[in-house]
């Protein structure tokens, strides 16, 4: 993992833009605490709130050049919206924990307490990450999946997320995995076709999720210029239990029911068409065309 770029500015010289999605699970509560944390660090902070879908990207494009850093407080979808809008443009983006899963913040090692997250990022360093991009221009930083991965997102009810936070995804994913529902897929990666049946197909940019709790593959890195497709194909319930256990222990790459395909241009098809999710946001149906944008994201990490 590259050391990244150290930020030479001291907090007192930093002028930050904070983009807030007020409908995210924790953002409305955490907004004032974030503002206090910027003030305590001696950094100037201007707050702008979204009011509609697409606002986060619009605000970032219109105002980011006036600031030395851009912070985003909302769910993973809002964070990736800002990151995508500023891809290959800058300034660097700091992701604050304000949603249900906070998968991206956890993956970046960002503290879950706002009072700790803000100063950690202000004193942090910049790192370039790859991004996945869909044909309609939308981006993802973590991964895009069909099958059990999509079911994990779709079946985590708002009530359950309100009660137990990101553990709602853990619970719904476990229930979906126990069904061992197989789907027919056709995957074309850099022109090479792969076909079969699987419980889930995940186009991954990160090798671990949930702060390292779950490993998707040790060879998957967010700065290697390609995306890695992880194909989960357990045949029965025992296989599913074993695969899940190995994801927890970091040895899933050794399992015969898991295979990998890497590529920079990917087409994912299923029969019948299946709904997909990307970074916790539900998408339309397959087929989906995906490309990688190497090093396009400029992210702050502690």
Question: Can you describe what's shown?
Answer:
Strand 12 and strand 13 form a beta hairpin. The chain is built from nine helices and 19 strands. It is an alpha+beta fold. It has two domains: 119 residues, Rossmann fold; 156 residues, Tumour Suppressor Smad4, CATH 2.60.200. Strands 1, 6, 7, 9, 10, 16 and 19 form a seven-stranded antiparallel β-sheet that branches. The chain has a six-stranded antiparallel β-sheet with strand order 15-14-11-8-17-18. It has a four-stranded parallel β-sheet with strand order 3-2-4-5, with helices on both faces. The longest helix has 14 residues.
Name the helicity range: 25-40%
- Going by CATH, the architecture of the largest domain would be Sandwich
Note the total helix count.
9
Which blocks of ≥5 consecutive residues have pLDDT under 50? 1-9
CATH topology of the largest domain: Tumour Suppressor Smad4
Structural class: alpha+beta
Largest sheet: 7 strands, antiparallel
- How far from one another are the termini? 14 Å
What shape does the CA trace take?
Answer: elongated
Count of DSSP E strands? 19
Radius of gyration: 19 Å
What string, H for helix and E for strand, traces the elements in order?
A: EEHEHEHEHHEEEHHHEEEEEEHEEEEE
Q: Give the averaged pLDDT, no decimals.
A: 85
CATH level 1 name of the largest domain: Mainly Beta
Beta percentage is 35-45%
* Total discrete domains: 2
